[in-house]
């Protein structure tokens, strides 16, 4: 999962970004509204943390422009504690959730986890596929209750595939969602990570679909869950 943090307070941006990296996400940072808008408009993010008070272009304007251009990624806005009108305006223009400053970083992490699982149609913070269990709160993976030690790249890869279980994910999509913009991206490395992941998990939970990409099977009884929030009404 790849996230964008748009916050002009450099210390705060660094603090949030560091916590997100620690939690296993790839993170890009922007320090003003124009830079943030541009990244959100041109890169693929699974969620965005957006401060509203930003130089060059305010957060409400940035969010409004993304939404009008059809950018649907979940957006968590950061608001001042006593500015209720900011929250109302934020939701009206397309925010998915908010956190008021000052906040505990744990709250940002929990709200982002909720946004990410809602966007991919999951109800809980634990994702299960056969004997593999991915705990998004602790960023840990278990096979048959035994912990498996993964590098951050391996964790990100498995987490992305498990969030999108049942859907074939292409290598280029993986590259877009696993690495931050400064990373030297090469889709061949995905194959290497998949190989390591398979060896570490010890079971064949990741299937290769020749010419298309990779897929993790949906858990039993979860049919229709992986298509994302937009087609949840299909489960009549
Ligand atoms: Ca600010």
Structure report:
The protein is α/β, with parallel strands linked by helices and 236 residues long. It has two domains: 2-119, 3-Layer(aba) Sandwich (Rossmann fold), CATH 3.40.50.2300; 126-231, Orthogonal Bundle (Arc Repressor Mutant, subunit A), CATH 1.10.10.10. The protein is 39% helix and 21% strand. It has eight helices and eleven strands. It has helices at 10-22, 33-42, 59-68, 84-93, 105-119, 152-163, 171-178, 187-201, and strands at residues 2-6, 26-30, 47-51, 75-80, 97-101, 126-129, 132-135, 140-143, 146-148, 206-209, 213-216. The strands form three sheets. A five-stranded parallel β-sheet has the order 2-1-3-4-5, with helices on both faces. The chain has a four-stranded antiparallel β-sheet with strand order 6-7-8-9, covered by helices on one side. α2 packs parallel to α3 (59-68), α6 (152-163) crosses α8 and α7 (171-178) crosses α8. The longest helix is centred in the middle third of the chain and has 15 residues, at 105-119. The protein is globular and about 50 Å long. The relative contact order is 0.12. Residues 223-236 have low confidence and may be disordered.
């Amino acid at each position: 999962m790849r996230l964008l943090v748009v916050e002009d307070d450099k210390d705060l941006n660094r603090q949030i970004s560091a916590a997100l990296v620690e939690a296993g996400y790839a993170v890009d940072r922007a320090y003003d509204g124009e830079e943030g808008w541009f990244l959100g408009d041109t890169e693929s993010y699974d969620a965005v943390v957006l401060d509203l008070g930003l130089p060059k272009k305010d957060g409400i304007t940035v969010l409004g422009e993304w939404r009008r251009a059809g950018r649907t990624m979940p957006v968590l806005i950061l608001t001042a504690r006593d500015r209720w009108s900011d929250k109302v305006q934020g939701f009206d223009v397309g925010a998915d959730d908010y956190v008021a400053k000052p906040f505990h970083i744990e709250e940002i992490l929990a709200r982002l986890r909720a946004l990410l699982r809602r966007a991919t149609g999951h109800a809980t913070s634990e994702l299960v596929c056969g004997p593999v269990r991915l705990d998004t709160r602790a960023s840990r993976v278990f096979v048959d209750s035994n912990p498996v030690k993964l590098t951050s790249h391996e964790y990100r890869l498995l987490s992305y595939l498990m969030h999108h279980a049942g859907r074939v994910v292409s290598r280029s999509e993986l590259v877009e969602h696993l690495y931050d913009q400064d990373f030297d991206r090469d889709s061949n490395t995905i194959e290497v990570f998949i190989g390591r992941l398979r060896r570490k998990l010890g079971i064949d939970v990741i299937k290769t679909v020749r010419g298309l990409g990779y897929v993790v099977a949906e858990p039993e009884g979860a049919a229709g869950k992986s298509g994302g929030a937009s087609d949840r009404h299909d489960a009549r």
